[in-house]
Amino acid sequence: MGDAAGLAARRAALTALRAGDEDGTWSNRAVPAAIADLADARDRGFAAHLAYETLRWEGTLDAALSLVCSRPLAEVERPVHRVLRLGAVQLLVSDVPDRAAVDTSVALAREQVPRGRAKGAGGFVNGVLRALARQRHDLPWPSREDDPVAHLALTTGHPDWIVAELLERYDVERTRAILVADDVAPGVTLRAVGDRQTLIEELRAEGLEAVVGEVDEAVRVPGADPRRLDAVAAGRAVPQDEASMRVAHASGVRPGSSVLDLCAGPGGKATHLARLAGAVRGEPGPGGADEPPVVAVELHPHRAQLIRDAARSQRVAIDVRVGDATEPPLSPGETFDVVLVDAPCTGLGTGRRRPEVRWRRTPDDVDDLAALQRSLLSAAAARVAPGGQLTYAVCTWTGAETDGVADAFEASPAATGFTATGRRQLLPDRDDTDGMFIATWRRDGDR
Ligand SMILES: C[S@@+](CC[C@H](N)C(=O)[O-])C[C@H]1O[C@@H](n2cnc3c(N)ncnc32)[C@H](O)[C@@H]1O
User: Fold this and answer.
1) What is the pTM assigned to this prediction?
2) What CATH number labels 243-443?
3) Which of 26, 260, 262, 298 to mutate to test the pocket of ligand 1 (most atoms within 8 A of CB)?
4) What kind of fold does domain 3-138 have according to CATH?
């Protein structure tokens, strides 16, 4: 890679980091947008790699930079701090020669500040990164025996509280395996909307490697860019992790089921449920009716619109209603065979594709979201028809969400007449999926 291309790629990575910092844009959007203008695929790959690794290793990079920085990092202006992180990731994580890492960082630092201060910013970044390059084989991280939480946090790039959270549920070896797996970007998985084999043949005809996944509709397409696939644009395939596909299969839906999805935006699971229920536009429904009722509730109007768009593209019939699922916009007494609460959660289980989630969430978020999930689950239980099934799913692994919410539900009056039928925590190390928790209950009676 030439000097100019190398600098442009690093500048693009910096743009993605800034979008996350300043506007809260998630990396799975910010990175593709920031690298789109780079002409060479290798430059795009390098820029994406740097951006994602910087986000993953933020805590470790800051800990290392603090050791060599002459002033507290909190006092370093934000744009220069971002350049330091980007430089540090090249020295500590990526296989980039020291000189290229330092020189490009100096050039970027000079661009980040008003012209009068460019020289000072460049000199500062030069000094810090050179000092880090000298010390990088000698970083004083605690040993696993002395402080397992800090050791795992610094050597896998996670905050202490998430490590401690996992250590409450798993031993040190398993915790390390989960955290290491959380640092590896997943391959692309598609849900085939129609016939899976036809989709595989279409993808192979485009020169892509496409193989079946474990779930019935899953197709793995390593190395593909889903945004560039005709099949995705035309609604014949949906980018979706297999853990999410498993939620629809765990819900007990079958052809003709009536379905209520209470937290439905942007519609990944609602459209899958509609397919499995047979609510396909232009095809007679399995129960004789044209379209079995699939109702999707979503709090935010713009996310409700995404469900409508997805339903239209995938040719499924969904009645989308904007409202608060704790008091759902339904007729009194209206019940369904299948009720899903795919609740708002800390989202730690999506860290492979959005690594910054680990730094954005706090332990307070866990408690607030667990409380919301408990109310959503109680409201959902009231809408399950006799013989129907209730499903609670969250893409996270904290104990207070997952099992804590399921236990609280089972101990509450809302669970009267329900029998637990399954609980499962999917995790990236063992299942090679997002970290998704799924719990199901059957309501007494005949369906
Ligand atoms: C985890 S996402 C659901 C993802 C969706 N099931 C899918 O597969 O595409 C949770 C959704 O719940 C919505 N939400 C949050 N609070 C809600 C509430 N009180 N009532 C209804 N929807 C809510 C959020 O806006 C978000 O779209």
Assistant:
1) 0.95
2) 3.40.50.150
3) 298
4) N-utilizing Substance Protein B Homolog; Chain A (1.10.940)
